[in-house]
Structure formats: C-alpha cells, structure tokens
Automatic annotation (TrEMBL), chain A:
This is 3-phenylpropionate/trans-cinnamate dioxygenase ferredoxin reductase subunit. Keywords: Dioxygenase, FAD, Flavoprotein, Oxidoreductase. Residues 5-307 form the FAD/NAD(P)-binding domain. GO terms for cellular component: cytoplasm. Its cofactor is FAD. It comes from Goodfellowiella coeruleoviolacea. It comes from the Bacteria. Residues 326-410 form the Reductase C-terminal domain. Gene3D superfamilies: 3.30.390.30, FAD/NAD(P)-binding domain. One of its GO terms (molecular function) is dioxygenase activity. InterPro entries: FAD-oxidoreductase/Apoptosis (IPR050446), FAD/NAD-bd_sf (IPR036188), FAD/NAD-binding_dom (IPR023753), FAD/NAD-linked_Rdtase_dimer_sf (IPR016156), Reductase_C (IPR028202). The keyword Oxidoreductase applies.
From TrEMBL, chain B:
PANTHER family: FERREDOXIN-2, MITOCHONDRIAL (PTHR23426:SF65), FERREDOXIN/ADRENODOXIN (PTHR23426). Keywords: 2Fe-2S, Iron, Iron-sulfur, Metal-binding. The keyword Cell cycle does not apply. Belongs to the adrenodoxin/putidaredoxin family. This is Ferredoxin, 2Fe-2S. Gene3D superfamilies: 3.10.20.30. Coiled coil: none annotated. One of its GO terms (biological process) is P450-containing electron transport chain. The lineage of its organism: Bacteria, Bacillati, Actinomycetota, Actinomycetes, Pseudonocardiales. SUPFAM superfamilies: 2Fe-2S ferredoxin-like. GO terms for molecular function: 2 iron, 2 sulfur cluster binding; electron transfer activity; metal ion binding. CDD domains: fer2.
Length: 411, 106
C-alpha cells in the first residue's frame, strides 16, 4: 500500500517531518503536502525571538531546502486551505480546498496544527490587539514594536518570550496573567517564581491573578487595557497569548472522533483506523513510558517524534509512539528546558546552580523522578532527559545535594 | 558554496551543498540527512545535532562554548575529543567539511 497517493494536510513542523519520514521509510507513491500559508514549512520558535529582532528571514527559517521537495518528489502546494474531506471509510477519499481545487488520495494525514485562542472581551477587535502564531503575525508584530507600552495578556511561553524580546528592545512591558503564577500549566510554582524575578529584573512588570476586563480604544486603535480590579494599563500594542485550540474542525466534519483534538491511538490512527493525525492537532496517548493518560502536546519535539512514528504506520510496519516529551523556551537571558511531564502535585526538589540565574527544579512523585525544569542548566536537562528515556532512577536524597553534579548521579 | 560530507555510522556518505551562513546542522536537516535532528533549530537547547568533526577542521571553527561543552558531556552518544554540536558549526564560503554522525541523538 505504500504506492498510493499520500496527502498530508498542514505544512508545519509535523507535516514536513511526516513527508520526510514517509520517504525515508520507503513510501514510493506520490506525496502531496498542502499548506494554507504562502511559505514552505518553516521553524516557528524563532517567531517570538529572532523574527521580532529582524534577525531571521523566511529562507533562514525554512525546515527543508527547495531541493529537498524536488529530490524527494514531494508536491508542495502552498496558499491552499482544505475546507472539506470526503472519506471512503477505507482510508481513501477526496480533499477539497476553499479555492475549489481538490485532491484524491489513498491515504490521508492531518497535520493542521492549532490556532491562537482569542479573548471574548470588549475591544478585542481593535487595531493593535494581536496574536502570534505564524510568520505573518510575527512580521506584523515586529513592525509595531516601536510602541512605548506593550501589554502581554497571558504569562505562558509565547507571552513571556515576546515580553523579554520587547523589553530588550526598550519597550515598557506589562505581563497580565490570570492564574496565580507564570507558566502555570507547565512548571512548578518554585520555577515560576524564579522566572518571574528574572523578568522583573529585566524591567518587565508582571501582574499575576490579574484579569483583563476590556480593551479601550482611541480612534479604532487600542490605547489601554482595563483590568477587573479597575487598573488601567496604557498599551499601544496588546499581544494576546492565552493558549491555542487544535484545528480539528475538518476532521470532525468528516466524521472522525474529536475531543479537544483529533483522537488518535498510539499509532497516530484516527477513529476510522486509517486517517493519521500528528502534531498540535492530535489528542493522543501520552508517549511517556508507563503513562495511561491522554493529552495534546504543543511542541516541536512532539511534532517531529510523533510524525516519525506515524510514518511507520503509513508504510505498514507500525511502531507505537513512545518517548519522553520535552519543551524549551528562550526568554531573554533565560534558557528554560523541561524534560518529562510532571503532574501538578508532583513534589519539587530545587537544585540551585553555581551562579545566580541558573537552577534546576526536579519533580518527584514519591521517590520516582518525573520531570525536570532547568533554567540556564542545559547539562542537567540532558541528564534528566536521558535518565527518563532509559528508565534510570535518580535518587531523591542524592539529587537534593546540589553540590554533586546531576551527571555524576547517572554514572 | 560550502559543502558538507556526512558519514553515517554505517559508513555511507552523502555530500550536501549548503548556503554560506548555514550551520552544519541546518544543511543536514534541510536536505533530509538522517541522524541529525536539530530539534531546537539551533538555539543550543536540545543537543540532537551531535557530530564528530573531522580532526583536520578542528581549527576552522570557534572552540566549544560553555553550554555546548556541558551538553556534550551528557550527549546520547558518548562524547569524543572531536565531538561538536553541529548547530555551532557555521559555514563560510568555499568551506568543505567532513563530519561523522553518531549512533543516536536521543
């Protein structure tokens, strides 16, 4: 069956990886990769950093060279948004784009990604209230960074990365986070507090437990953000970074089961048993060995590793997707790296680094290491990622002694 | 144009023409050379672009940096004297570089 037409809808990190891996594993038939943006697949992480600083171009961000698509016989179709799928029930079908263009396929993979959530608040449609997801968003944001005051709504990775970049460029930045701490869904309160202090040292004002009530305009453009407690924050520009929702509408309309993402099994197969879904759009079994929960993962690691595993399903040699999820976020002088997925109530063992601004927070469930939150401590990150991947124990008692390098504990 | 010759652990070789200013990691990933992942895109966050740099090029690149050094110490494949993270090997015009790819990056 690896001679039919493979259609991949969505030309981001996961889509690009899937076509590459399918070819690597011997998919011999035609391959079409359809994307709705005008650009060939590119790397998104620099959008909140290098692109805002004017230090990246669409060429420098490219995930694959033009020669790759030519040599691998991948038909890359850009600027086309697939709006309808007709599935036969045996894996084949037809995809139809908004333009009317259509593709018949023998096998379909959805890599449609996610889109930024927006706030349903008065003034949310004012000019200058923006989100950041794609290159066009980043270029628009970069052009507007000459404002005096930026308000970032949402203290997650994207919001904090933009806050750090803008502050370094001389913009007065206020981060407004509704939850009790920054990055509340992904790091422990201990890490969140240390990161908060670093942002404040860099001149960023951080408000937690703060809820925006409305965006106030002046002649159609945003001028301020009003908070629920009455505070009025001047804002020539507002970035809303409050998470993303999976783009699963296509799949749902085609009758595939969706539940906050396209529901797939460990082989990336959707509910029809044939269609694949990979990357941000998929609701999948946690790939962490031993875990039995389901989740959605928005990360480069997941896009790449799930797509690689999905390619084995495509070529008829299915291997389940397993691995230790990891994430990173560069926020000004902070290099934050997270290995493993902790539960919110996992305990914290803090290992201060040998100098300020460098530390690792290990997460333990009982005596079992579940994750690590590393700030400017790349070696610790590597050690924990390796330990988790190989199922090796790191003694909690020994780990609490910051005088002993973590790498010694693995030896 | 700079050229990079990648040798896989099994000895197979592939030569890729790169752009000036690309890193050895970028040239590999963009051209689908297996074994160099470069997941973080070159921000020294993942150490999935470990290579063994041919000794004759040792002085052609800046020395190993502090973070790079720390990460190589615990790379998935054991470090050797000529280990580098290939995202740190930025190519100049006319340069020809030979690297060997390790068994595993994760």
């Amino acid at each position: 069956m690896s001679t039919g037409h493979l259609l991949v809808v969505g030309a981001g990190q996961a889509g690009a990886q899937l076509v590459s891996s399918a070819r690597d594993l011997g998919w011999a038939g035609p391959v079409t990769l359809v994307g709705q943006e005008p650009h060939a697949p590119y790397s998104r992480p620099p959008l909140s950093k290098a692109v805002l600083r004017g230090q990246a171009t669409v060429e420098s961000l490219a995930l694959r060279s033009p020669a790759f698509y030519r040599d691998q016989h991948v038909d890359l179709v850009l600027d086309e948004r697939v709006t309808r799928l007709e599935l036969s029930g045996t894996g084949s079908g037809t995809a139809v784009a908004a333009s009317g263009r259509s593709w018949e396929f023998d096998r379909l993979a959805l890599a449609t990604g996610a889109e930024p959530r927006r706030l349903d608040l008065a003034g949310a449609d004012l000019d200058g209230v923006v989100v950041l997801r794609d290159l066009a968003d980043a270029e628009a944001l970069a052009r507007r960074l000459d404002v005096a005051d930026l308000v970032v709504v949402g203290g997650g990775f994207i919001g904090l990365e933009v806050a750090a970049t803008a502050a370094a460029a001389g913009v007065r930045v206020t981060v407004v986070e509704a939850g009790p701490s920054l990055m509340g869904r992904v790091v422990s309160p201990v890490t969140a507090e240390l990161v908060r202090a670093a942002h404040q040292d860099a001149g960023v004002r951080v408000l937690t437990g703060a809820r925006p009530l409305r965006f106030c305009g002046d002649r159609g453009s945003v001028a301020a953000v009003e908070l629920a407690d009455g505070t009025r924050l001047p804002a020539g520009l507002v970035l809303v970074g409050v998470g993303a929702r999976p783009r699963d509408d296509l799949a749902r309309a085609a009758g595939l089961r969706c539940d906050g993402g396209v529901v797939v099994d460990a082989f990336s197969r959707a509910s029809d048993g044939h269609t694949l879904a990979v990357g941000d759009c998929a609701d999948l079994p946690d790939p962490t060995p031993g875990s039995d929960r389901r989740l959605r993962l928005e990360s480069v690691d997941n896009a790449v590793e799930q797509a690689k595993a999905a390619a084995t399903t495509l070529v008829g040699d299915p291997r389940p997707y397993t691995g230790v999820p990891w994430f990173w976020s560069d926020q000004g002088s902070l290099k934050i790296q997270i290995a493993g997925l902790a539960h919110p109530d996992d305990e914290v063992v803090l290992r201060p680094g040998e100098r300020p601004g460098r530390f690792t927070a290990l997460r333990y469930r009982g005596d079992r290491l579940t994750a690590a939150e590393c700030v400017n401590a790349p070696a610790d990150f590597m050690v924990v990622r390796k330990a988790l991947a190989q199922g090796r124990a790191v003694s909690r008692a020994e780990a609490a002694d910051a005088g002993v390098p973590l790498k010694k504990l693995l030896a | 144009m700079p050229k990079v010759c990648y040798t896989q652990p099994d000895g197979t070789e592939r030569v890729v023409e790169a752009e000036v200013g690309d890193s050895v990691m970028q040239a590999a990933v963009r051209n689908g050379v297996p074994g160099i992942l470069g997941q973080c895109g070159g921000s020294l966050s993942c150490a999935t672009c470990h290579v063994f740099l041919d000794e004759r090029h040792a002085d052609d690149f800046p020395p190993v940096g502090e973070d790079e050094d720390d990460m190589l110490d615990v790379a998935a494949t054991d470090r050797a004297d000529n280990s580098r993270l290939s995202c740190q090997l930025v190519l100049a015009a006319g340069q020809e570089v030979h690297v060997t790819i390790p068994e595993t990056q994760l």
